[in-house]
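Consider a concrete sample entry:
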Amino acid sequence: MKNSYIPRLFDKTLSFLLPCVGRVLVSIPKGCGKSTTCSSFANEIIDLTDEIVYADLIKLVTLSPSEFLKNRKNFIN
């Protein structure tokens, strides 16, 4: 059986907010579908569970936060 996305009420909120602000913090209980929901809106997904990716991003963010955010729109971590 193929898993398909189940629309959530929060989709409308994200659709409204992302074009206005570009980034949002989603802080809701575990298991509510926030990763799945946000992934459907994201242009880029950063997997911070990968230790190499995490270490490289920490270096980049520490050295130049503006460079990290440059050309990034609608990404989740």
User: Anything to note?
Assistant: The chain has one domain: 10-76.
